[in-house]
Amino acid sequence: MKVLITGAEGQLGRALQASAPANARVLAIGRADLDLADAAAVEARVRAESPDLLINAAAYTAVDKAESEEALAQAINAGAVTAMAAGLAGTAGRMVHISTDFVFDGRAARAYRPHDSRNPLSVYGRTKAAGEDAAGPDALIVRSAWVHSAGGENFVRNMLRLMAERDRLSVVSDQIGAPTWAPGLAATIWKLVARGGTGLWHHSDAGVASWYDFAVAIQEEALACGLLDKAVPVIPIKTADYPTPAQRPAFSLLDCSATRGLLGDGYTHWRTNLRRMLLEEKALG
């Protein structure tokens, strides 16, 4: 099985490569290999490679910057997906597209199910929703949230840096969701592929957290494993106290019960996977 993975240098791209099944011949491409804003080049590359499976793990993810770069975000998050689908047209190749909790508006009273109505609040969310539509009805679309992995660019590593540099931190406490360890997400994607999955699916780690809860846990676990040598006060603040260009959903917890039910692989709590990630981070030096 020939597998083309975009976003080779990203957290999920690396995790997918590391956990690829034995029968997969993986070609992973990154920004240096292909400009995803160039739709013609994307379609031509996909057509030339003619993969059995295309996993689109690349995206424009600068949520706040997207508010002033809407055309670029649209080109990468939606236009490139349209081009990928066109490149696969007429072949037996399948597409896996990775999406986000930001397609929802955060006003739900329960965790979001895959087929709940979307109402994105930001340019990033709108362009990711457009990417879901562009992937087509036969694609496998996996939504996730708050992704982190050792060595990546993410909230966990940012908190570790700030906790080492500052005397105190303020972190938003009224945005609720659940973190996701990238290797766990990658494992779910490969399992869904093996099942021939199509349509919408959700994956995040089990449990619920605010960004403040997550930050507190990061400090506690980092102190326990020796990544930090001192604790600093972490102060909860409201979203209104930390204004950003992009509006974020206040509640974006994903209901992953359908995914876990299909795969029969149980739930892993986000704090367990945070501990795993921090141990890997420590091993990196």
Annotation keywords:
6-stranded parallel beta sheet; single chain; 285 residues; 12 strands; alpha/beta; two-stranded parallel ribbon; Rossmann fold
Summarize this entry quickly:
With 285 residues, this protein is α/β, with parallel strands linked by helices. It has a domain at 2-153 and 178-206 and 252-267: Rossmann fold, CATH 3.40.50.720.
Explain this structure.
It catalyses: dTDP-beta-L-rhamnose + NADP(+) = dTDP-4-dehydro-beta-L-rhamnose + NADPH + H(+). GO terms for molecular function: dTDP-4-dehydrorhamnose reductase activity. Keywords: NADP, Oxidoreductase. The structure is a single chain. The protein is an alpha/beta fold and 285 residues long. It has a domain at 2-153 and 178-206 and 252-267: Rossmann fold (3-Layer(aba) Sandwich). It is built from nine helices and twelve strands. Strands 2-1-3-4-5-10 form a six-stranded parallel β-sheet, sandwiched between helices. A two-stranded parallel sheet has the order 6-9. α7 packs across α9. The longest helix is centred in the first third of the chain and has 19 residues, at 70-88. The radius of gyration is 19 Å and the shape is globular. The chain starts with a strand and ends with a helix. The model has no long low-confidence stretch (mean pLDDT 97).
Helix and strand arrangement:
Elements: E1 2-6, H1 11-18, E2 25-29, H2 39-49, E3 53-56, H3 70-88, E4 94-100, H4 123-135, E5 140-144, E6 147-148, H5 155-165, E7 169-172, E8 176-177, E9 180-181, H6 182-194, E10 199-202, E11 209-210, H7 211-225, E12 234-237, H8 257-263, H9 270-284
Parallel strand pairs: 1-2, 1-3, 3-4, 4-5, 5-10, 6-9, 7-12
Antiparallel strand pairs: 8-11
Helix pairs in contact: 1-6, 2-3, 3-4, 5-7, 7-9
